[in-house]
């Protein structure tokens, strides 16, 4: 780290182009230009955490020719930032803003009072890590492109852009190049994370040979309630409804008989019965205004409550419609690639209207000025202009996991809030066990505790640095519903406890040590 603390010249690479960069003191001039002044951030006046760490926000260009720019908001760790790991966070969708993670899940503050104020979050992830929140792909949130066709995109293009985003950000903050670098997400992050991990690792191998760009010090990723496999995901969604007794037996039995194959997978394409759509519409009708992202939590009942419920139902319908349309679209497209406007990703945190408050807050002119947002931008939680490649949304991600775990020394933690139906724990269990790794007999569905209560279950696999952890009574966005457990989960990921060692044994045996870590954070 000290090499970056002195005045000097540093080789850098932005989107594959060599350059020279001046580093003055702790930060580059480009970073200093992005520094957020706490005194100008609306709503921060009464925060206890105010001035407790440095923040930066701005744009990283990932394609100079097309003018493609990704917005970031970086929160340095509250303690020992120069040595703490760096974690990139984005939300899923595809097409939902990483600012949702910052302002409603695990950022140092959250929005309240209809977008007028900020309140401290005692379980912020920047207590233990430097947090880099981003909005991907371009067209999401404050991110933009000067080339309109860039808003038609997919997994491959997003992975490449994300790689250059990381390189561009590390060029701007070179003092963090030697820190451990991790990535994290949820929902459609089940696509983003394994693909970005592979993009980084493959390019690292290349640059070690030709020196075309600096190596990224990549350590691994953690992903929550990931959308990984469309077939198992859709079956698990209705199984979760049935398991929570939100459906009548006769309708669910008919659906299982007609719409689930003998292997337990979702029937799609030409073999799908026309009755399936009607049965699913009936089941969705029974769910009504129950929040599918957190079945036991309240919905926002403010002025936008009706809109929220409608958006959730649309999202739910789009998820399973995509699956059954897969084969039909493939047959009809005749080689033409299809694009889909992503479903709106919704949630109802313990503060049911927390996500709703982000809209007025991030559209305030004084907030956008404090964050140096491009003038005239209208911020949305989930983009209505991005069109995402349908075939990518249907592509199973299990082969990516197997390549990563077999070919590279990376840590992978898959965690799952067990109150979610949209990316239900049942579906995650199906695909993660099907990866084929033997379960560690010393850690098979082992309870872990927080505050003397069961916080969830932990399964560790052999032959790969892979662990699966459930979080009890958490919804789709785990940190929003169970913030203390989410911070504990992150601590254990960073210190390696989920893969064995004294910390894991101590925490799982009593729950006391792990709980004390959270309460003293």
Question: What's the short version?
Answer:
The protein has 521 residues and is of the alpha/beta class. It has 17 helices and 18 strands. It is globular and about 65 Å long.
Low-confidence stretches: 1-25, 304-336, 342-349, 502-521
What do the pLDDT scores average to?
85
Separation, N- and C-terminal Cα atoms:
25 Å
- Tell me roughly what share of residues is in helical segments: 25-40%
Tally of contiguous helical segments: 17
Radius of gyration, rounded?
Answer: 22 Å
General form: globular
Structure description:
Mean pLDDT is 85; it is low at 1-25, 304-336, 342-349 and 502-521. The longest helix has 29 residues, at 305-333. With 521 residues, this protein is of the alpha/beta class. Helix 6 (249-259) runs antiparallel to helix 7 and helix 16 crosses helix 17 (512-519). The protein has 17 helices and 18 strands. The strands form 4 sheets. Strands 3, 4, 5, 8, 9, 11, 12, 15, 16, 17 and 18 form an 11-stranded mixed sheet that branches. The chain is globular. Among the domains are: 29-220, Rossmann fold; 396-495, Rossmann fold, CATH 3.40.50. The protein starts with 7 loop residues before the first strand and ends with a helix.
């Amino acid at each position: 780290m000290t090499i970056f603390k002195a005045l000097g010249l540093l080789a850098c690479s932005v989107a594959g182009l060599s350059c020279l960069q001046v580093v003055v003191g702790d930060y580059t001039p480009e970073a200093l230009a992005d520094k957020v002044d706490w005194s100008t951030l609306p709503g921060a006046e009464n925060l206890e955490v105010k001035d407790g760490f440095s923040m930066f926000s701005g744009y990283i260009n990932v394609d100079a020719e097309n003018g493609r720019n990704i917005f970031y908001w970086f929160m340095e760790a509250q303690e020992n930032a120069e040595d703490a790991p760096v974690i990139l966070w984005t939300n899923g969708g595809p097409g939902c803003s990483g600012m949702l993670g910052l302002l409603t899940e695990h950022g140092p503050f959250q929005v309240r009072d209809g977008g007028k104020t900020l309140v401290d979050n005692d379980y912020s992830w920047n207590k233990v890590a430097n947090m880099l929140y981003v909005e991907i792909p371009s067209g999401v949130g404050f991110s933009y492109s000067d080339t309109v066709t860039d808003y038609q995109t997919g997994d491959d293009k997003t992975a490449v852009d994300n790689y250059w985003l990381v390189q561009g950000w590390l060029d701007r903050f070179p003092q963090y190049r030697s820190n451990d670098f991790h990535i994290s997400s949820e929902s459609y992050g089940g696509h983003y994370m394994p693909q970005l991990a592979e993009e980084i690792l493959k390019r690292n191998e290349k640059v070690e040979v030709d020196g075309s760009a600096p190596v990224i010090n990549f350590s691994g990723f953690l992903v929550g309630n990931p959308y990984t496999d469309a077939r198992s995901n859709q079956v698990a969604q209705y199984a979760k409804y049935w398991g929570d007794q939100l459906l009548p037996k006769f309708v669910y039995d008919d659906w299982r008989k007609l719409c689930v194959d003998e292997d337990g997978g979702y029937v799609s394409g030409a073999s799908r019965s026309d009755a399936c759509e009607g049965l699913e519409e009936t089941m969705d009708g029974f769910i009504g205004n129950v929040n599918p992202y957190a079945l036991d939590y309240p919905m926002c009942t403010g002025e936008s409550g009706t809109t929220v419920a409608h958006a959730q139902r649309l999202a739910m319908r789009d998820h399973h419609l995509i699956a059954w349309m897969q084969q039909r679209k493939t047959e009809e497209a005749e080689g033409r690639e299809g694009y889909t406007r992503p479903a709106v990703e919704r949630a109802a945190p313990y503060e049911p209207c927390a996500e709703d408050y982000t809209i007025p807050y991030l559209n305030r002119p004084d907030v956008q000025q404090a964050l140096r947002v491009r003038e005239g931008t209208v911020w949305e939680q989930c983009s209505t202009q991005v069109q995402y490649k349908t075939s990518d949304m249907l592509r199973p991600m299990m082969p990516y996991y197997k390549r990563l775990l077999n070919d590279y020394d990376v840590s992978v933690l898959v965690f799952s809030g067990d109150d979610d139906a949209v990316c239900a724990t049942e579906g995650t269990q199906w695909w993660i066990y099907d990866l084929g790794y033997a379960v560690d007999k010393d850690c098979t569905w082992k309870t872990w505790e927080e505050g003397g209560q069961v916080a969830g279950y932990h399964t560790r696999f052999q032959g790969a640095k892979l662990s699966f952890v459930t979080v009890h009574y958490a919804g789709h966005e785990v940190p929003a519903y169970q913030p203390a457990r989410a911070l504990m989960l992150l601590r254990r990921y960073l210190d390696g406890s989920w893969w064995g060692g004294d910390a894991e044994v101590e925490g799982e045996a009593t729950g006391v040590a792990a709980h004390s870590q959270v309460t003293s954070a």
